[in-house]
Design a protein that fits this description.
The structure is a homodimer of 252-residue chains. Helix content of chain A is 62%, strand content 4%. Chain A is mainly α and 252 residues long. A three-stranded antiparallel sheet of chain A has the order 1-3-2. The first copy, chain A, binds a DNA duplex (30 and 30 nucleotides) through helix 4.
DNA sequence: CGCTTGAATTTGGTATACCATATTGACAGC
DNA sequence: GCTGTCAATATGGTATACCAAATTCAAGCG
């Protein structure tokens, strides 16, 4: 699967998909130790997160199975997995579509993600090793470098890595897993938002405070910062013509 | 499916399963509007939550499919769903077992659940309607009645309903869903713990404070209370000979 | 010209068949 | 009596066949 071909035959070439990640989407191989269902779920997850399958797009089992070189059985299992993750919606007797959250949904997801990060940050203040904090500091300065270069993509990725590192330092596997899943659901949206965000300097200064808080192991402060930080990362959905409505620039 | 028969032919008749809920487990029917996979997932979830399928027990696809009157296809989809939920573990090429969390896992789950409830409580203070608070107060007094009667089962259920009502009042669907899922994973464990908990009066007095906090819409206080309340609900795993080790009283 | 209707087709849902591998159990050798 | 080995069996993983329902589309009617 060197190149993803969409249902309509056109390659997906709109603004963001090839940029979101450097790594190509994993190929499904027979000789992997993972079952095809799990591999398919991983590939499909990437395709949705990276907007190769845009929100709301119907997922035809036979078509997609053929594209992924698996049968419908493992693909359907993959779809059920992703449905629990919230990346696809299963419409009874009407198949699956890539999740298409409303702006209200996004608000709730951001509120939730902020809460998770706040909790994780609070725990991280107690449990993070000095080495973990050092690494977060390093990532922070790398992020400042990206900001200095006005490299929004590099900034975005480093930002993600910082938040991920903070959550990892919480030491709670459920917080980590929940964060990862919710982040996947929001990834595409936050990416788009990041690329047009006008509150960039604000976000940067907040990150300075975040770094200070974890360095000082100030749990209450860090919790509070992370709880409210996402607002600076995110330009309101209502200002973003795409979300919550049918996606116009995808021909499906 | 009037009576669940376990693999070994014995009916599951150990201490708790029939008491945990009054309602019998739903039957899988052809004429439901839900797909069999979804119905199977619901039934299986109940069977695991209610300890009809005890932790660590291998789940044989053909056997269970026959018992549920479905084919392996929808049952496997159900297993994948429950695996994401954390109720079953999928061992690659070796099938599924009912989740068997270690005491370390339980600690993390309780920490996580407490965090979720704290977040939800904080939001509930801002968003709960007066009617919702009235209902929580009513449940609280019902719970006190159960306590007066030393009716641990009724107490447990009302306790659950109170926490559920608090989370519902948060108005955040993700908090609600996450809470529900984590609660399902912990239900059996907390039930057993509840039945032998020696800190009952402590839990009651904490609930008094919880009620006051939501009545006063004191978000910070309620968050704090809920964060740390689970400790009073739970007798330590290490005192509970069952958890974290092979289940001795189940013959599998 | 638009609306209804019904056949053709597509699609999701389920059951079953098949395969490779893991497990079991008996037998042979020590 | 213990252990290693190999056949028999059971099990999970996958593909395919089949069915009912939904969708599509065109013919027919108003």
């Amino acid at each position: 699967m060197s190149n993803i071909i969409l249902d309509d035959g056109s390659e997906s070439d709109h603004d963001i998909n090839t940029q979101i990640t450097d790594a190509p989407i994993a190929t499904i191989s027979e000789d992997s130790d993972l079952p095809l269902a799990q591999q398919a779920a991983n590939v499909l997850r990437d395709m949705i997160v990276q907007d190769i399958i845009p929100p709301g797009k119907p997922i035809r089992e036979r078509t997609l199975a053929q594209q992924l070189n698996v049968s419908r059985t493992p693909l359907r299992e993959a779809l059920r997995i992703l449905a629990v993750d919230g990346l696809v919606e299963l419409l009874p007797s009407r198949g699956a579509i890539a999740a298409n959250p409303s702006s209200e949904d996004v608000k709730h997801m951001l509120e939730f993600l902020g809460g998770i990060e706040g909790l994780a940050g609070e725990l991280a203040c107690k449990r993070a090793t000095d080495e973990e904090i050092d690494e977060i500091r390093a990532l922070h300065y790398e992020m400042l470098a990206a900001f200095a270069r006005k490299d929004r993509l590099a900034y975005f990725k480093l930002n993600q890595r910082i938040h991920r590192a903070l959550v990892l330092a919480s030491g709670n596997p459920l917080l980590i897993e929940t964060h990862e899943r919710m982040n996947a659901r929001l990834y595409r949206i936050r990416y788009r938002s990041n690329m047009r965000n006008t509150k960039w300097p604000t976000a940067i200064s907040e990150h300075e405070e975040i770094l200070k808080a974890i360095e000082n192991r100030d749990a209450v402060k860090l919790n509070d910062l992370l709880r409210n930080h996402l607002g600076s990362t995110w330009t309101k959905v209502s200002e973003d013509g795409q979300l919550g409505t049918t996606d116009h620039h995808h021909n499906d």
